[in-house]
Amino acid sequence: MNHKPSLDSTSANWQKDLAYVIDHIRLRNFPKALADLLATQCNVSSILMVTYKKSFKPIILHPTDPAEQSPTLRTYINQAYVLDPLFNAIQAGINPGLSRLIEIAPDSFETTEYYQTCYKNFDLIDEINLIIELDNEVTCTISLGRNSSLGTITRAELNQLKEIYPIINSLVRQFWLSQSQEYVQYEKSEGAMKQALETFGSGVLTRREQEISGLILRGHSSKAIAGKLNISLGTVKVHRKNIHTRLSTSTQSEIFTLFLAHLNELEAAAPSAEATPV
Question: Where's the HTH luxR-type domain (predicted)?
Fold first, then answer.
C-alpha cells in the first residue's frame, strides 16, 4: 500500500487494500495493515492505535516495534496518559465515532505542563481520533496525527474518514474478538496513577481544592472549572490562591512537578503489578 492517499473509497486501490486488511484480521499484524489502509485515505504524520480499559494502563496496538516508539510515547503510556484529554473523554463516556482533539480538549490545554512537557513533543498541530468501543470495558482509539508540514485536516479528508468509519469500526471489533487474548498479557493495573490523582494534596488541601487541582492539571481554565463545578469564578480564584499557598507553589508547572513527585512515591511503594487476565 504505497500509493498516494485517495478520497474515493470505491476505487480499485481501496477495494484491494481493504481485502488485504480483511485477510489479516486474525493475525497480529492486522493493526499495521489497518494503519497502511488509513494512510491511503488521509495524509498523516503518525498513526497510533491504543486500547484503554478503566482499571489498566493503555496498551499499544500500533506501532509495536520499540524502535518506532519515541521516548515521548513511552512517557505517555506509562504516566502522562491520565492527563490526556482523549483518555479523560473516554472516562467521561464519549460516544464512539470521529473526534478531533481540539473539540474535546479543555480550554487551557496548551498551557498545561502535560502539553508543554509531553504532548508538544509529538510535534502535532492536529489530531483526529477514531473512537471504537470494543466491549463494555475496553475502548480502542486510532489517532491520526498531522504536523505543521501537512497542516490541519481538510474538510474532504474529514468527510472521507467519517464515510469509512463504520467499516473501520467493524474491522477493529472483529480483530479484537479474535485477538484480544494476545494483548491481555500486557495489561498492567493503573494502580499508583489513579491513586495519585485521588490523593494528590491529601492532608494539605481540602477535598474541593483537590478536585480543582486535578482539573487544573488536566487543562481547565478558572472559567471552565467554575462552570463544571457550578461555582462562581471568584470562588475558583480563591481556591487557586489557597492551593498555591498550601502547596507553597506559584505556578502550574510547580504543581505538576509536585504531582509527579507524589506519583513516583506511590509507584516506588507499590508492589510490581503482574499481568491480569480479563
Answer: 198-263
For residues 91 and 93, what is the distance between their CA atoms, to the nearest angstrom?
Answer: 5
3-state SS of the chain: helix, strand, coil percent to 5?
55, 15, 30
Same-domain status, 37 and 154: yes
In angstroms, rounded to a whole number, what is the distance separating the alpha carbons of residues 97 and 166?
A: 9
Q: What CATH number has the domain bearing residue 253?
A: 3.40.50.2300
pLDDT-based confidence at 140, cuts 50/70/90? very high
pTM greater than 0.85 (yes/no): no
Cα gap 23→43, rounded to integer Å? 24
Highest mean pLDDT: which range of 78-82, 167-171, 247-251:
167-171
Do both 143 and 224 map to the same domain? Answer: no
* Alpha helices per DSSP H over the chain: 12-23, 30-39, 71-78, 85-91, 101-104, 113-117, 155-184, 192-199, 207-218, 222-229, 233-247, 252-269
142, 140, 119: which is closest to 129 by C-alpha? 142
* Least-confidence region, from 8-12, 224-228, 262-266: 8-12
Domain that includes residue 109, residue range: 12-184
pLDDT at 275: 42
